[in-house]
Amino acid sequence: MRFNEQHRAIRDTTARFIDEEINPRTKEWEDAGIFPAHELFAKLGELGLLGICKPVEYGGMGLDYSYQMVFAEELGRIQCGGVGMAIGVQTDMATPALAKFGSDELRREFLAPAISGEAVCSIAVSEPGAGSDVAAIRTAARKDGDDYVIDGSKMWITNSTQADFLCLLANTSDGKAHFNKSLIIVPTRTPGVSFSPRLDKLGMRSSDTAQVFLDGVRVPQRHRIGDEGSGFVYQMLQFQEERIFAAISGIKSLEACVSQTIEYTRSRQAFGQSILDNQVVHFRLAELQTEIEALRALCYGAVEAYIHGEDVTLKASMAKLKIGRLSREVTDACLQYWGGMGFMWDNPVSRAWRDTRLASIGGGADEVMLSIICKLMDILPRRKKGEKP
C-alpha cells in the first residue's frame, strides 16, 4: 500500500484530534459508561472525518477506502475501545448501504447529517435470538398504505441511547430468509421506539449499548434503503467494511499493549534483573509484534483489493478472525508480564484485555468467520443428497 500526502494528512489530523480531544477524557467517559457522541461527532464532522469515502454531494470527501483505512488505523490510538467502536458504527456499519443504495431523498435526509456529525446513528441487526445468524431475525415490518409498521426488538445496539436514527434490518415478507429482509431507516423519536437501560458490559465501557424495542413503529416506505427484499445482501456488503474496520482499527491498540509492556518490564526488577531481560519475555514480545505486523499486511492487502473492485469476502473474514484471535493472545500475554499490576482495573493492558474480547464476537463470531473461509476454500463437509442445511 502506497500512501500519498492526503493519506498522511488524514492520519496526522486524526492522531492530533485523538490526542487533544479524546484521550484526555477517556477515563471520565469510562467511569460514566457513556461519552458525548453528539459533541464529539460534530467535531469529527467539522474535520470531514465522518465522510471520508462517502459521496461529495452529501458532504463527504468522495475518496476511496484506503483513506478510510488510514483513519480507522489511527482510531486504535484511542485509550479505550468504546469510542473508536462508536465512531466505526457511524462510518462503517450504519451508513455504507445508505450511501450506496439509498435514494437521493433518503441520503439528503439522513446520510448528510451523519457525515456532518449533526446526527448519530446505529446499526440495528442483532436480536436476543439472532446474533451472528442474521437470517434468523424476527423483527417484522408489514405494509400499511404507504408506511411500514414495525414490531420486534434489537439487542446490543451501539450508540442506541444517543442515536437519532437506526439502520434497521427487518423481515418485510414471508419469503425465504435470505430474500425477505429490507434495511429501513427508523428515526429514534418515532412513537413506539424505546430503549432498555444501558447494558452493563465486560468491556467497551464508554460506549452506550442498549436493547431497542419497536412496538407498532410507523415509518414511510420511502425510508427503505434500495430494493425490498435485498436487505440481507446489503447487510452482507456492509459487513465487509465493518470487518475490515474492526481488524485495522485494532492494530495500534495491540501495538500500544506491546510497547507499554516493554516499558513496564524494562523498569520492573525481579531476581536481580529486569523482567524484560528474561529471554522468554523479550522473545515473546518480538513474536507478538511480528504477528501484529502480519495482520497489518493482510488488512492493507484486503483494502488494496477492495478499492480495485475485487470481492474481499475471504480476506475480510480472515482479517476479522485474526484480529479477534490475536487480540486475545496479545492482551493476555502482556497482562501476564505486568504481574499483579496487570490485574488492576485501571491498567491500560487490562482495559484492552476487556475491550478487545468483543472482536471475536461482534460483527460475526470467530466460528462464523471460519465457516465463511472454509466455504470459500471449498472445504466444508459435503452434504448428502436431500440433507437439510
Question: Can you characterise this structure?
Answer:
This protein is an alpha+beta fold and 389 residues long. It folds into three domains: 5-120, Orthogonal Bundle (Butyryl-Coa Dehydrogenase, subunit A, domain 1), CATH 1.10.540.10; 123-229, Butyryl-CoA Dehydrogenase, subunit A, domain 2, CATH 2.40.110; 250-377, Butyryl-CoA Dehydrogenase, subunit A, domain 3 (Up-down Bundle), CATH 1.20.140. It contains 13 helices and ten strands. Strands 1-4-5-8 form a four-stranded mixed beta sheet. Strands 2-3-7-6 form a four-stranded antiparallel beta sheet, with helices on one face. The chain starts with a helix and ends in a 12-residue tail after the last helix. The model has no long low-confidence stretch (mean pLDDT 96).
Quick structural summary:
This protein has helices at 5-22, 26-32, 37-46, 65-75, 81-93, 96-101, 104-116, 231-249, 251-267, 279-307, 313-337, 348-355, 366-377; strands at 121-124, 140-144, 147-158, 165-171, 181-187, 193-195, 209-220, 224-225, 269-270, 273-274. It is an alpha+beta fold and 389 residues long. The protein has a four-stranded mixed sheet with strand order 1-4-5-8. A four-stranded antiparallel sheet has the order 2-3-7-6, with helices on one face. A two-stranded antiparallel sheet has the order 9-10.
